[in-house]
User: Fold this.
Amino acid sequence: MLELELEPGVVLVTGANGAGKTNLLESLHVGTQGFSPRARSDAQLVRFGTQAGRVILAGSNGHHRFESDVVLSPREARRATLNGEPLRSAEQLRNELRSLVFTPDRLAIVKGGPATRRAYFDRTLGRLFPARTSLPVEYAAAVGQRNAALRRLSTGDSSRDAVDPWTETVVTLGSALVGARLATLDALSAPFAACADRLGLHAATLEYAGEPPTRAELDDRLEKDVERGVTGAGPHLHDVVVRAGDLELRSFGSQGEQRVAVLALVLAEAETLAGAGGPRPLVLLDDVLSELDEERRRALADLIADAGQTVVTSTSAGVFPAEPSQLLSVLPGTVRAV
Assistant:
């Protein structure tokens, strides 16, 4: 069992590769969001040879104290409580507590396919506009129902009349989802460009690729949709294009440029959430310094200096060009203040 108190400001966590720095960040994410940013199952989170794992966090959420408790087991559903009250699911924590994370595999947000970006920005949508959190799920459910109706129509087990109500629902929810995504990009664009510029990625922009679905569009392609058994138009197929000037970063950006873009997105969202009121999010930056040159490391240190609580991991304290509020050293199984 490890007990640790983190100070406000920038917490720099150092240690050799494999010492457990990422595990520490992962536990902070589990304790504030209810899930791991990298592991797909709880069995991957529980120490080998043990039956369960547990993360207990206590801290300040704005002006209020909180305590979260998440129990992980390879064989049972994850359980969580917040301030002593059981939650229906551990992931409910993310509706109450704010934390954002950068990990090296998050480069997929820029270099991966459209589905990865849609999922990322839809999660951001939920944090920025809590009242619209359910829109992506409701829209996906409507598309699933329309697809099922299309397949029944193709086999003669149903009629076009059974498809029409779901077409209308897809149009209504799809238009609302596109509007919410556009509002999300509008809120992020200026801070994203500013953070990216300070990190050396100039003229960075976010561009939504897609239009709200219309009834005429879906009616016109009904025959094709019936043939394929899927809805072939709508925001479930849209994309967000990340650019630096005229350069589309997914196809033509270097890995360094893609890395800076993802980091700028995380920092921009943290700034946007703070500006919208409520508590600043906890920001978790895992192995963010290794591929940044000295100038960009200094820019990052300046950006996070007054940005609430930020936890940064590194193999060496020397690569962080500022004095952290707290310096921790990780050895296998232990963490100590330096």
Summary: The two ends are 20 Å apart (CA to CA). The mean pLDDT is 95.
